[in-house]
Amino acid sequence: MALILCLETTTTNCSVALSREGNVIALKEDMGLNYSHAERLHQYIDAVLAEASLNKQDLDAVAVSKGPGSYTGLRIGVSSAKGLCFALDIPLIATNTLKALAMQADTTDVQTIIPVLDARRMEVYSAIFDTEFKELRGIEAQIIEEDSFQEQLTNGKCLFIGNGAEKLKGILNHTNAHFATEALPSAREMAHLAEAKHKISDTEDVAYFEPFYLKDFLVTKSKK
User: Fold this and answer.
1) How far is the first Cα of the chain from the last one, in angstroms, to the nearest whole number?
2) pTM for this structure?
């Protein structure tokens, strides 16, 4: 029964979950608008362990949301995860940030799920999934334009989920476009992904693992 500590710090949500066999048994997070990771992350780690009446030595692995996202948030989350793994001599697992965000979606009457994280100006990080959370297009950094995601919107209803959806809401004028602008990545959805990776020993090299920053932005040209 794998006991995994999950850390999510890619956005303003400082989120920590403790999972057993893929099920969350304790969760602590801050869904505020300001970054609080440096002050709260280790407090939240202690809090979830205390809630479950466990200690760090009981952990089988630590999972961290690998990005993309806030540079500072990613550094704090990854550094904390690596420190725990070194100290406890346990595996490090990296989970897909945008897939975990997509897993918050209500898939009712939707054909495509598009998690989008705010970057800067009119830029977002995005990926595309079907309603079974199979990846249809990998993570990209892109500048949002009126013709963004037209292929997906033409094929059916799309749910844009994440704090980048607010930008899209003001630009995409399409009846198939739906938006969940308040969602932020959470350690809650990481639990299932981390458990699946743990079962097949899909782990990272603690010494050399780096977050997925994805800094390049591309303008997607419309098809003629």
Assistant:
1) 54
2) 0.92
Look up residue 221 and give its two tokens. 């040209």
Task: Express each pLDDT in 34-55 by its tens digit.
Answer: 788 889 999 999 999 999 999 9
State the Cα–Cα distance between residues 157 and 152, nearest whole angstrom: 8
Is residue 121 left, alpha or beta, with left meaning phi > 0 and alpha meaning psi from -120 to 50?
left
Structure tokens at 141: 């950094």
What pLDDT score does 215 carry? 65
**Which residue type is seen at 119?**
A
Both structure tokens of 208: 């050399």
pLDDT band at 223 (very low <50, low <70, confident <90, very high): very low
Q: How far apart are CA 142 and CA 220, in angstroms?
A: 7
Q: How far, in Å, are 104, 112, 165, 211 from residue 135 at the CA level?
A: 15, 10, 19, 20
